[in-house]
Amino acid sequence: MKNWFTGLFNNLKAWLERQVKDDESKRRATCAVVCWIMLLILIPSIFTVWLGIRLSFSMAIWAGVMSFSIQPFMVSVPEYAALVTINLLKHGGVADKEKTEAKKRESPLKEYQTGLSFRYPWEQVKIGNYINLRLLPLGMEESYPAMDGPEMHTKWQAPYRVKYPIKFIGVGREAVEDILRKAGSSVLSAFIAGKEAEEAKKEQEGMEGLLKDKFASMKLEEECGVEIPVVSLADLDYEPEVQKVRASQYVARKLKQIARELQAKGEGEGKPISDSDALTNAMIIHGKANLNVNEVKGKGGNALAALLMGMAQGSGGKNKEGGNKK
After folding, report:
1. Which of 126, 159, 291, 311 has its CA 20 to 30 A from that of 29?
2. What's phi and psi for 133, nearest 5 deg?
3. From the CB of residue 187, how many other CB atoms can be counted at a distance below 10 Å?
4. Pair 190, 207: CB distance under 8 Å
5. H or E element: which one contains 326?
6. In terms of domains, do 191 and 271 share one?
């Protein structure tokens, strides 16, 4: 029990030291403590001295009032977050003639970090002013035309973290993310436009380096209050429609290759095969190969290898049968 009280005392001591680390924090803590002491004096005086109510009942009233007075004088900020409050008695950029230049430049915004802190009752707390300090996701998928025409599909990510909440809230999350997206898009579009599609596809790593250099050169901390620890180009490939066309072209080339092999075998055996028959048989072989590969999918490499060897042997038998029929 002694250790528990010792730990509690040390934690309270450390917390109080953090609350009075500067003059502004001291003033906030002093304001709260003075108001609570005044309540402790006034409430028993009114209810006990003037109205003749028992002291125990007066203290109960004081405790009830205190429970409602804590919120105006204190603020709680959750983990990995910050709160920006608005001092309603200050006006940014507007000051009386008697105030100094330093006071004129003083901002009505105040930043509170994770934990329990004293505040002035006239500092406005808004739900939207709680700032998430975790890594915030930011990604984008876009297509840009290459020099030779094809559209190149890109997928990049640049998650960011808020470092200076007051600057960030002054710019706004939507504006910050719009700035980052436009910066990334400008780099990718310019790079891809200056390259042919196949060349650009091979230089994904170089393009990722350009993205990193672009974000590193921007004054994001000073202007927007954010930092970008990681930048990655997850994908750089032909647009899905172009990929379908290229896949169709590959299948067509494969069918022609199989047809030529069938014709060459037929000629070697003295049983020539016409172009249409060779192409028909090639389509049958190619379609059966795809079907059988899907059937053995997941059974391992040995099963797939055995299937392909068996089909290669079966192709010769079919050629002979086709030649006999012809």
Report:
1. 126
2. -95, 5
3. 19
4. no
5. none
6. no
Cα distances (angstroms) measured from residue 120 to each of 28, 29, 131, 169, 185 = 6, 9, 20, 21, 45
Provide the 10 A C-beta neighbour count for residue 43.
Answer: 19
State how far the Cα of 64 lies from the Cα of 43, in Å rounded to an integer: 11
pTM confidence score: 0.63
Is 92 among the domain residues?
A: yes
Q: Are 312 and 289 in contact (CB under 8 A)?
A: no
DSSP 75: E
User: What pLDDT score does 160 carry?
Assistant: 95
Report how far residue 95's alpha carbon sits from residue 104's, in angstroms, rounded to the nearest whole number.
Answer: 5
Token pair listed for 169: 């809230």
- 44 and 82 in a single domain? The answer is yes
Torsion of CA 241, 242, 246, 251, to 10 degrees: 10
Neighbours of 201 (CB within 10 A): 17
Structure tokens at 78: 């959750």
**Measured over all CA atoms, what is the biggest interatomic distance in the chain, rounded to whole angstroms?**
127
Separate counts of helices (H) and strands (E) for the chain: 12, 11
| pLDDT-wise least confident of 48-52, 115-119, 121-125 | 48-52
Residues 35 and 73: their CA atoms lie apart, in Å, by 9
d(CA 306, CA 309): 5
End-to-end CA distance of the chain: 100
Domain count, the chain: 3
Most confident of 33-37, 40-44, 125-129, 222-226: 222-226
Is residue 108 one of the residues assigned to a domain? Answer: yes
> Which tokens sit at 110?
């105040």
**CATH code, domain carrying 203:** 3.30.479.30
**Which of 191, 182, 229 has its CA nearest to residue 210?**
191
Nearest partner of 136 among 25, 266, 230, judged by Cα: 230
Query: 3-class SS at 62?
Result: helix
> What string of DSSP letters covers 105-170?
H--SEEEE-SEEEE--TTEE--GGGEEE-SPBP-EEEEEEE-TTS-EEEEEEE--BEES-HHHHHH
